[in-house]
Specification:
Order of helices and strands: EEHEEHEEHEEHHHHEHHH
Oligomer: single chain
Mean pLDDT: 97
Number of helices: 10
Distance between the termini: 22 Å
Strand content: 15-25%
Helix content: 40-55%
Radius of gyration: 16 Å
Number of strands: 9
Strand order of the largest sheet: 1-2-3-5-7-9
Largest sheet: 6 strands, mixed
Low-confidence stretches: none
Structural class: alpha/beta
Length: about 240
């Protein structure tokens, strides 16, 4: 059973994380599958929107799989894969839509924040939990979405955000029952796909350049890699 399920519906690509027994926590093999898929989509001239979703409405992604047995070198390799993931999510040249259901924690929150649009399931538990382990992650994406003061509060405290609050602070565009969230994301993707393909790609590039997201993510990735190589780093099983 693959830990990433891909489906193409017309010109919309759906990537579903498929480790329900781990709440879709990301181990090294899953990161490689996800990164390979995103790289393909970066080079795909036919795709018009990308949805990041899950096979289980109980969780989008519970972050890194800290139970994965790794030595120090393996921990660095995994963090390099996370850095690549964050870069690729930002680099996808068409709008990305996240299906935010259940646990969306740590790396799950980062993926969601890196997407262009978000649909919140009513069971959403979204949290930037990095501060608990000292992980230097969050400011590169969240600040642009919700503002500096609110981003500081969410990242410093790591408290969970539910669906209603996510919409209220501008983090999510729609809410839905958890088992209907992907369908709503598909509706949004359909609206995007009706627009001029070249125009949407140009607008995506303009947003990226005006907000300086590539530079912000490069800076944060450098801090993440230093944390894993030269500091405590994420647990390794």
């Amino acid at each position: 059973m693959t830990s990433l399920v891909r489906e193409r519906r017309g010109d919309v690509e759906i990537l579903r994380l498929n480790r329900p027994e781990k709440r879709n926590a990301l181990d090294t093999p899953t990161l490689r599958l996800l990164n390979d898929a995103l790289q393909e989509l970066c080079d795909d001239s036919e795709v018009r929107a990308v949805i990041l979703s899950t096979t289980s409405p109980d969780a989008f992604c519970a972050g890194a799989d800290v139970s994965e047995p790794l030595d120090a070198a393996g921990g660095v390799v995994r963090m390099e894969a996370f850095a690549e993931l964050y870069r690729l999510v930002e680099q996808v040249p068409v709008p990305t839509i996240a299906v935010c259901v259940g646990n969306c924690v740590g790396a799950g929150a980062e993926i969601i924040a890196g997407c262009d649009l978000r649909v919140a399931g009513e069971n959403l538990k979204l949290a930037w939990a990095g501060a608990r382990l000292g992980v230097p992650v969050g400011p590169a994406r969240l600040t642009q979405l919700v503002g500096l003061s609110r981003a500081k509060e969410l990242i410093y405290t790591g408290r969970p955000v539910g669906a209603d609050e996510a919409v209220a602070i501008g983090l999510a565009q729609r809410t839905a029952p958890a088992d209907e969230a992907e369908a709503i994301a598909l509706e949004l993707a359909g609206l995007v796909a009706r627009q001029s393909s070249d125009g949407i790609r140009t607008l995506k590039e303009m947003f990226r350049e005006l907000e300086g997201t590539a530079d912000r993510i490069t800076y944060e990735n450098e801090r993440l890699l230093d944390f894993q190589r030269n500091s405590v780093g994420l647990p390794q099983g």
